[in-house]
Amino acid sequence: MTGSSLTLTTCDREPIHLLGAIQSFGFLLTVSSDWRVGQASANLHEYLGLSPTEACGRLLSDVLTQDGVHAIRGALQSMASHDSVERLFGLVLKPGLAFDLAIHRSDQWIVIEGERSVAENPADAAQSTRTMIMRLQRAGTLLETCQEAARQVRALTGFDRVMIYRFDEDGSGEVIAERAQSVLEPYLGLHYPASDIPQQARALYLRNTLRIIADVDDAVSTIVSVAGVNTHPLDLSLSVLRAVSPIHLQYLRNMGVAASMSISIVQQGELWGLIVCHHGKPRQLSLGVRTTAELFGQMFSFLVENRQREMELAQERFTRAQHNRLIASLPGEGSVFDNLAAVASELRGMIECDGLAIIVDDRICATGRVPSDAAIRELGRFIDKTSPGASFSTDRLATIYPPSREFDSCAAGMLAMPISSVKRDYLIFFRDGWNHAREWAGDPGKPTLMNANDDAIGPRKSFAAWSELVEGHSRKWSAGDVRVVEQLRVSLLEVIFRASDSADRARQEAGTKRELLIAELNHRVRNILGLIRGLVAQSHDGVSHVEEFIETVSGRIQALARAHDQITAEQWSAAPLRSLIEAEANAYLLPGRDRLQMTGPDILLDPHAFSTIALVVHELMTNSAKYGAFSTPGGRVVIAWAIDENASMTLSWIEQGGPPVRAPTRRGFGSTIVERAIPFDLKGTAAVDYALGGLQANFVIPKAFFRLSDGVVAAVAAKRAAPLDHLQGEVLVLEDNMIIALDAEDILARLGASKVHSVSRVSEALQLIETQLLTFALLDFNLGDETSLVVALQLRSRGVPFMFATGYGEELRLPEELKHVRVITKPYSVESFRSADA
Questions:
Q1: Other Cβ atoms within 10 Å of 773 Cβ, number
Q2: In angstroms, what CA-CA distances link 151 with 9, 125, 185, 260, 673?
Q3: Taking Cα atoms as reference points, which of 86, 50, 92 lies closest to residue 69?
Q4: Where in the chain is the domain with CATH 3.30.450.270?
Q5: What confidence score (pLDDT) does residue 231 get?
């Protein structure tokens, strides 16, 4: 709700108008760029021992402790954006006085709000939030999730009543879940008119997602300002203590509510609903509890979105199966009308409806409850004028097409799908009229008056259930219904084009091809725009200035463009993994390509996997160039890939010689791409290790997204099957102890090796792998200041059998892709080698 406009007093007693005022249980200060107090709430003396006139104009360090000012500066430094609020808990601002602070920016002002601190354990708040979310996740349906959320918020806050309030398309709202004291009248199922929450209040709910009114009768505290500093009202939209409209306070009094709190439920930038809390007596919650409630609201918003998406996906899977069966059952011969008429019942079953009409060449085929043929023809003419060439839906047909009142019992709602833009050919799905009672909390159309003269409009006083009979409407068409129809339209256009007889094809071929092309192009463009929108929306995280934002977004889009160019060069078929990596490397490493080492068989990635892996490799390259191995002259990166025993591809990224690595304290969008893109898009796995010596990342890509030549597969299988007790050819020993290396050479020679290369460093082993045709390798795992993991991954990518050796006498901690490798302990013997499988 909006705040009232108050006349405030400045230091020299000149009036100035500011929007809103803080509630009396907290204080407010505004600070200018030179850290002087510009405005202060009139109740400041109750907390800090200063009057507003004494505080205004003074340096903040003269009003608060030095430690307090230091903490406030630190909070401002870490502020994510101008539209965010930072919080500090238990901060001592005056000796013996601890406060919880909320800090944000408002135009040129820094707004500092304080409340007396309540002793709370932060770990308890974190555990409470975790427990609440876990219980929410166990809920099944969306309504069950909402009901559990109401229960959890009531347990956290202690309010008498907690409701989940969902907005409808027309702005009205409905209580869809409720937890309340048993003596209270239930509000579950009641609707509230859109006027109860005006648009300006809804905009405020989007910016400030938690609002509390501790006492509807609490006096507000005015704000005193330094003379001449205010040229416009102070914007208190993000204030946590901001007073609300007296009209809203009277609204709550009329409901018998003494205290209230609301938590916004936001979906894709829109206000989906509210968690509304009511209490019969004044109730103040600490800033810590409110912060926990706000965090819970954000997590609940994500869960609601996931639940809705799960429902949509389940419906899409069901309709996709029906869709595939329908397309397969279409006859291969005959006219368009005959083809569609033959599957009319199946078409009707694609979405929930009461009837279906097919109009082709002014011929009509109908099934279920539908209007007369003449009425359908007239309706087709109306659709052709209103929405030619595009799908069209309404649940109130009579409001836009009055003649439909004659048949609204069977066609109150309609979803029309054009088959061709050349003439009036449509599939029209109908829904019957759905006459039902809607329960309102009071008469939504009846204004109320606040004074005895009946001349001042105010909030409603009556909230008794008021029943309205809704007539002339059908059940609403969901977004999922529209998507199903659009998918069906594309498929039918293709099938119709293939199955049309020669005469019909000659007449309609150009138009149908155009429709199919536009539909497919529209589908692809929407996907591309959605992807780019997601990249732009997510790339702002952690970016401090516009130039960095442009560079980040540009790099990611260019990575997609490079991947797209390589795919289209192969006519949208599989493209080489190696060329993908080389294209990304060329953007950073020319000259200096010798700092990147790639090993692995020739693998072709399918187009979908190619784009996903291109984004991952781009993020790794960018991160390495900025912070990792490629940021220093001596740094290098080893990229190795191979086929594992499950026929999946393993891909490893290992950085060496760069600056020391530390795990990030926050996760940006780049980290999200690296860690989640392959698991989400390709159903593979991703693991990132921020090892001190260099970042390491390992990925597994399922076999469905790549292919390998038969010759490479056969060679790898043959090498894996080679028995160890009959060695031949050249063998590698990586061992940092000369005596042990000599012993290993003797044993391997007795097992048949024609030549044994002994080296003590990883770099020497990697060079041998590149220059020699090896048949086996023995790798000492621990080599003083390095390990042999990089060498193992190189050997694995080339299909060379190897085993690890250790003198510690315990199981080594190996990466997942190397856990099947045999480990032998020192000292060696011929028998220990012969008992190992390569």
A1: 9
A2: 45, 17, 17, 16, 35
A3: 92
A4: 330-435+473-524
A5: 55
Q: Residue 5 phi/psi, 5° resolution? A: -90, 120
Question: In 95-180, at which residue ranges do the beta strands (DSSP E only) sit?
Answer: 97-106, 109-116, 161-167, 173-180
pTM over 0.70: no
- Please list, in sequence order, all residues whose beta carbon lies within 8 angstroms of the beta carbon of residue 159, skipping any fewer than 6 positions away: 153, 259, 261, 277, 278, 279, 283
Residue 828 has which token pair?
């060696």
The sign one gets for the Cα dihedral 189, 193, 197, 202 is: positive
Token pair, residue 294, equals 């706000």
CA dihedral 576, 577, 581, 583 (to 10 degrees): 20
CA distance 86 to 80: 9
Q: What is the pLDDT of residue 303?
A: 86
Domain with CATH 3.30.565.10 in the chain: 540-708
The DSSP bridge partners found for residue 527 are none
Please tell me what DSSP assigns to residue 388.
T
Find out whether the peptide bond into 723 is cis, omega within 30 degrees of 0.
no
Q: Are the C-beta atoms of 98 and 91 separated by less than 8 Å?
A: yes
Phi, psi (deg, nearest 5) at residue 264: -75, 140
3-class state of residue 446 by DSSP: coil
Judge contact between 701 and 652, C-beta under 8 A.
Answer: no
Distance from C-alpha of 620 to C-alpha of 652, rounded to nearest angstrom? 11
- Mean pLDDT over 543-565 rounds to 56
Q: Average of pLDDT values for 492-496?
A: 68
Out of 3.30.70.260, 3.40.50.150, 3.30.450.20, 3.40.50.300, which CATH number does the structure's domain 5-116 have? 3.30.450.20
In the block, residue with structure tokens 């007296």: 246
Portions of the chain given CATH number 3.30.450.20? 5-116
Q: Which residue has the higher pLDDT, 408 or 443?
A: 408
How far apart CA 223 and CA 42 sit, in angstroms, is 6
The CATH architecture assigned to 330-435+473-524 reads 2-Layer Sandwich (3.30)
Give the pair of three-digit tokens for residue 175: 């209580």
Q: Which of 414, 407, 417 is nearest to 431 (CA)?
A: 414
The architecture that CATH gives domain 711-834 is 3-Layer(aba) Sandwich (3.40)
Q: What is the CATH number of domain 540-708?
A: 3.30.565.10
Q: Residue 27 and residue 97: Cα distance in Å, rounded?
A: 13
H or E segment at 584? helix 577-586
pLDDT digit string (tens) for 668-677?
767 887 888 8
Percent helix, percent strand, percent coil in the chain, to nearest 5: 40, 25, 35
Three-state SS at 575: strand
d(CA 43, CA 45) in angstroms, rounded, equals 5
Average pLDDT over residues 47-74: 87
Find out whether 664 and 542 touch, Cβ atoms under 8 Å: no
**Gap between the Cα atoms of 236 and 204, Å rounded:** 10
Q: Is the dihedral of CA 387, 392, 398, 399 positive or negative?
A: negative
Q: What's the gap between Cα 722 and its chain centre?
A: 48
Rounded to an integer, what distance in angstroms lies between the CA atom of residue 685 and that of residue 675? 8
Task: Please give the Cα distance from 440 to 460 (Å, whole number).
Answer: 12
**Rounded to whole angstroms, how far apart are CA atoms 397 and 474?**
9
Lay out the sheet containing 730-734: strands in order across: 755-759, 730-734, 774-780, 802-806, 823-825
DSSP category for residue 36: B
Residue 288 has pLDDT above 60, yes or no: yes
Cα–Cα nearest to 637, from 661, 619, 620, 662: 620
For the chain, residues classed under CATH 3.40.50.2300 are 711-834
Please report how the helices 122-137 and 287-329 are oriented relative to each other, as an axis angle in degrees rounded to 10. Answer: 20
Query: pLDDT digits over 75-115, tens only?
Result: 888 887 777 889 899 899 888 888 999 999 988 889 999 99
